[in-house]
Each structure stands twice: as structure tokens, then as C-alpha cells.
Amino acid sequence: MQYRIDKKTLLNILTIWDSHLKRKVHLIACGGTALTLLDIKESTKDIDLLIPDEKEYRYLIKILTDLGYDRVTGTGWARKGEGFKFDLFSGKTIFTTELLESPLKEGNNIPLKEYEYLYLGILNYYDLIISKIFRDTTVDRDDCLRLFEARQEEIDMDKLRNRFNETSSYDTSDEKNKKNFEYFLKDLKEKGFKV
């Protein structure tokens, strides 16, 4: 059975992870996890975390393996009985989307919580929307609309367009991505937003 995880439960799990660490690890929430941590969604079925530093990624995987987590998909890690999985991405690639810059660069993530060793940030709104538009599932489109509705005052549409176009120009699915972006803009217009 697939469970959903809320913000409080996720933060509690990360507290346990932190208690087993002996050095710094930076986690950047992306996907539905980011929206859950931003209080835009109540819960998420999978936890999507980007670990931009490769050495930190390898160290975290070693610790999680020691804690009983097993690889269940290419990027997915789970522990028996928990009912949800952690998708852990390394570097600056989320699913198949390569970000223009590291999320650790100033302004590319929203700081949420610092534990003793773990740093938890949330991917910036622009890269969050872009990575979801590139995936283009119904849930991703709905999430983009929810994020825009909740944070529209903080999102500069010109900056989003420019960053989207640049990110997409490096992707092999550039034409498909551009069509997806047009659908997103159309959805925003239908909801009465100026785009």
C-alpha cells in the first residue's frame, strides 16, 4: 500500500537521519516534496530530494544503507514497512532535467531548516516549475498551477520565461518542453492570471 507523507513526518525522519551523520549534507527539496514543505500541498507520496554535492550524496547513501534503506528504483530508496520512497538525485539533475546552476548557489534555494549536520532547502520557484513542466504529468501541471497561485507575487514571469527557454535549449526534448510551457501559460490565462 502506498502511503503519503506530510511535512511533520518528513521533518521527523530527517531528524533521525541527522542523528546518524558525522558531517554536513545539503538536501534540496524538489517536486511535490517542495510544495509540501512550502505548505502548498498537505502531503506527497514520494520524497524528492536533490543532493548537489556528489561526495555528500555518496556519504548519505552509505548512511541510509546502514539504516536499512534499499535501492528500489534507479533513484528510489525505501525501508521495509515505511510505505513511501525517497527519490535521491545527485548533482544538478532532477529526473531528466538538468538545472542551469547548482541549487546551492545563492538565490537558487529557499532555506528551510538547519539540523546539526543536515541542511534542508527548497528549490527556487523557477527551477521547480521548469522541472515539473519538463516531466509534464497531470500532477506536475496541477502542482505548477498551485505553486503559481500561492506565490504569484514572488514569481517574475519574464525571469521564468527566460530561464525556461535557456534550460530547455540544452534539453533534447526542447520542442515538447516549449509546447508544455505554452499549455501552462494557457492554463494560467484561463484562471485569470496575467502572463
List the helices and strands and how they pair.
Blueprint lengths: L4 E2 H14 L4 E5 L1 H7 L5 E2 L1 E6 L2 H13 L3 E2 L4 E3 L6 E6 L2 E2 L2 E2 L10 E6 L3 E6 L1 H11 L2 H14 L5 H13 L4 H17 L5
Parallel strand pairs: 2-11, 4-7
Antiparallel strand pairs: 1-3, 2-4, 5-6, 6-7, 8-9, 10-11
Q: Which descriptors apply to this entry?
A:
single chain; 195 residues; alpha+beta; Beta Polymerase, domain 2; 7-stranded mixed sheet; two-stranded antiparallel sheet; 7 helices; 46% helix
Spatial ordering of strands, largest sheet:
5-6-7-4-2-11-10
Termini Cα gap? 41 Å
Give the SSE string: EHEHEEHEEEEEEEHHHH
Q: What is the CATH fold-level name of the largest domain?
A: Beta Polymerase, domain 2
Question: What would you say the CATH architecture of the largest domain is?
Answer: 2-Layer Sandwich
Mean pLDDT across every amino acid position: 95
Shape: globular
Q: Determine the oligomeric state from the structure.
A: single chain
Taking the sheet with the most strands, its summary is: 7 strands, mixed
Low-confidence stretches: none
What share of the residues lie within helices?
40-55%
What's the short version?
The chain is of the alpha+beta class. The chain contains 7 helices and 11 strands. The strands form 3 sheets. It has a 7-stranded mixed sheet with strand order 5-6-7-4-2-11-10.
Report on the structure:
By secondary structure, this protein is α+β, with helices and mostly antiparallel strands. It has helices spanning 7-20, 31-37, 54-66, 125-135, 138-151, 157-169, 174-190, and strands at residues 5-6, 25-29, 43-44, 46-51, 70-71, 76-78, 85-90, 93-94, 97-98, 109-114, 118-123. The strands form three sheets. A seven-stranded mixed sheet has the order 5-6-7-4-2-11-10. Helix 6 (157-169) packs antiparallel against helix 7. It starts with a strand and ends in a 5-residue tail after the last helix.
